[in-house]
Amino acid sequence: MKSYLAAALMLTAFTAQGQVYKTSTAVIKFNSTTSAETIDATNSQVTAAMDAASGAVEFSVPINSFQFKKALMQKHFQENYMESSKYPKSTFKGTIQNNKAVNYQKDGTYNVTVKGKLTMHGVTKDVTIPGKVVVSGGKVSLKADFTVNLDDYNIKVPANNAAQINKNIKVSVDCTLVKK
Amino acid sequence: MQLAAALLKIDFMPTFQRIMSHLIFVNSIMKKIHIMTLAGVGGILLAVTGIVAMYTRETLGLVPLISGLAGLLVGMITILIALNYFHKEDATHPVILSHKPTLNLIQLVMIVSGLAAIAWAVFLGSTQPGFYGSIRNGLGAGCMVIAGVYFIYFAFDVARTAEHPGFRNRKSILFDYLVVFAVPVVAAGWSVYRLYSEEAGTVTIGEADFTLKPAALIGEFEKDAEKANATYIGKSVRFSSSVIELAGDSTILVKLNSWKGEYTVNCNFDKAQKEKLASVLPGDSLEVQCSCSGLTKPSEEMSLLSESSLDMTRCNLLKWYKNKPNIGTDLEHPEGRDTQSKK
User: Fold this and answer.
1) Distance of alpha carbon A114 from alpha carbon A96, whole angstroms
2) Which of A37, A60, A141, A174 has the highest number of chain B CBs within 10 A, making it the mutation to test binding with B?
3) Residue B90, phi then psi, degrees to nearest 5
4) Which of A148, B25, B162, B230 is 20 to 30 A (C-alpha) from B38?
5) How far, in Å, CA of B253 to CA of B266, rounded?
6) Contact call for residues B117 and B143 (beta carbons, < 8 A)
7) Contact of A143 with A132, CB cutoff 8 Å
8) Distance from CA of A88 to the nearest CA of B (A)
9) CB–CB of A88 and B229 under 8 A?
10) Considering the entire predicted model, what is its pTM?
11) Does B200 contact A27 at a Cβ distance shorter than 8 Å?
12) Mean pLDDT computed over A34-45
């Protein structure tokens, strides 16, 4: 009996561990559009992890890794807006609310809602983000589009740049995680 | 303007007149050298310094500040002169204004434009934190101020020289101002254009800000994270280490040994470097130069992200040591293959 129990526990532990998916090359893009200018940036060095069993999701975004088209905008973003030398990372920790509706063993696209804490520029806010979980060939992709308001995170835009930067930034998440 | 001149006359006349009389005395000795031409030469020197500094990537914080302030000072002095402050008229001192210069519409527009250029330089400095900390910004603003000065003075000078035909003819003065005026304006315009149009690099090039082993860099972050963030984040670091694995599709992630505990060094290369990295295998060693993005450590709050890593971005592959996994330790290493040469 004890040996069966031990085996069952080991199997459970193995299964639970096997349901963690990770990547170090998740992609996050953001876009700011005004009549004066459109600004796009991409970060391909985002670390993401997800526990399929519990629906827990975590992201760590190195701010210095955002790549812009224009050097001046990249410099302003790093040094003045996000102050990357003080706040080098942005993080998100949350849970997929309807995780039980996702079948990680079957290929498909599942609409989900993720609720959690987004920390940016030293400020943490509760957020609820709609997204998709795509299961394909043993890999899990997370996709989401949402908006972030700069004022909510104390990100100051100088008056002479106000016309070029929309305070509501569109953020797009796209990552493919593999089982670890 | 007469009211302003009258007010200024009451408050500042003795000191300013003394200063200006010295400058005028100098001008009388060097009769062909305008005081404004001297200012123009100064502006050209500032612009040339800025151009050289831009290419050498020097970061001289005091120089742009001085250039901007010098430009403002010159502008202020010239505006005072233009306000008919000194009420002196002398055919041998063309810097002195006549009593009542007659201004037409074009000259008024030039004065307004000149004031706008000076105001813009002040506005940029006061609204953008650290604006004058950039040598380009400072020199661009300084040149705008000097250009503004010339607009204002040029407007008045044309009116005055018409009243003193015996000293210099109008065309030679126009040419004089055009030459010394055009260079700062062109330099300012080019500086601003370069500033706003330069594309962000995807590869860290030039001389590295720091050359140190990954283990030492990680040690700095562990010792004092706040200080290390301020010192290293966004700065270029050059180091060597051995390859653990390669991954990624839109960009290339190369994990290197940190030789410090559980940490790996995650080096992110732009896809344009795919060809350079095509033959790199685990067990090889690389010498790279990257921009530091900081340390990732697992924490109680972020327990799923269990990997500890030193994150590097915009990496540039400098040397490749095939089948030499000990590079980056304390062992000396032989010459590696320069990735710039043909294989």
Assistant:
1) 4
2) A60
3) -150, 125
4) B162
5) 7
6) no
7) yes
8) 6
9) yes
10) 0.65
11) no
12) 90
Contact A79 B130 (CB under 8 A): yes
Phi, psi of B200 (to 5 degrees): -75, 135
* Residue whose pair of structure tokens reads 């123009």 in the numeric block: B40
Q: What is the C-alpha to C-alpha distance for residues A58 and A26, in angstroms, rounded to an integer?
A: 11
Give strand pairing partners of A57.
Answer: A50, A94
pLDDT of res. B137: 63
Is B182 buried (19+), middle (13-18) or exposed (0-12) by CB count in 10 A? middle
Q: Which of A130, A64, A123 is nearest to A94 (CA)?
A: A130
Amino acid (one-letter) located at B301: E
B-chain CB neighbours of A66 within 8 Å are none
From start to end of A8-86, where are the E strands?
20-33, 38-51, 56-62, 67-68
Which residues in chain B touch residue A91, judged by CB atoms under 8 angstroms apart?
Answer: 302
Among chain B residues, the shortest Cα distance to A66 is held by B313
Q: Is A33 exposed, middle or buried (0-12, 13-18, 19+ CB in 10 A)?
A: middle
The residue type found at B294 is G
CB contact (8 A) between residue A158 and residue B127: yes
**Amino acid, single-letter form, for residue B8:** L
Higher pLDDT pick, B65 / A108 = A108
Residue range A79-138, pLDDT digits in tens: 889 999 999 999 999 999 999 999 999 999 999 999 999 999 999 999 999 999 999 998
Nearest to A97 by CA among A110, A86, A108: A110
Give long-range contacts, CB 8 A cutoff, 24+ apart: B15-19: B16/B80, B16/B85, B17/B86
Residues of B in contact with A79 (CB under 8 A): 130, 234
Instruction: Report the residue of chain B nearest A57, measured CA to CA.
Output: B304
- Check residue A66 and give its pLDDT: 95
Torsion of CA B33, B39, B42, B46, to 10 degrees: -150
Predicted pLDDT at B303: 78
DSSP character for A159?
A: G
Rounded distance, CA B314 to CA B235, Å? 11
- Residues in chain B with CB shorter than 8 Å from the CB of A58 are 302-305
What is the value of ipTM here, to two decimals?
0.83
Residue of A164, A178, A174 lying closest to A143 (CA atoms) = A174
Query: Which positions in chain B touch A27 (Cβ < 8 Å)?
Result: 250
pLDDT over 60 (residue B95): no
What whole-number distance in Å separates Cα of residue B155 and Cα of residue B91?
Answer: 18
